[in-house]
Specification:
Number of helices: 3
Number of strands: 2
Largest sheet: 2 strands, antiparallel
Structural class: mainly alpha
Shape: rod-shaped
Strand order of the largest sheet: 1-2
Distance between the termini: 96 Å
């Protein structure tokens, strides 16, 4: 590294230059816009997922216990000696 006076003066001028400040400001604004866009996409995606899920639930038919219970099923319980206990 060159620590002489002219190099230090050049660095000081470069740090204070309006071009560098403008570039940093533009970069920061681009970064901020990208963050806002990502947040917006996440919020819109979450709202779409919620709406889709809610639509599926609302359009689903009602389920009663009689719809879930099996029908025409026969169970037989036998005693240990092999005779039928309950049908």
């Amino acid at each position: 590294m060159n620590y002489n006076r002219s190099n230090s003066e050049r660095k000081r001028l470069r740090i204070r230059s309006s071009a560098v400040k403008a570039r940093h400001k533009i970069n920061f604004n681009i970064y901020r816009a990208v963050v806002y866009i990502i947040i917006l996409v996440v919020c819109v995606g979450a709202a779409a997922a919620y709406g889709g899920f809610k639509g599926i639930i609302d359009s689903a038919p009602e389920i009663r216990t009689s719809d879930v219970m099996p029908s025409k099923v026969k169970s037989i319980i036998y005693y240990p000696d092999g005779t039928e206990a309950v049908e």
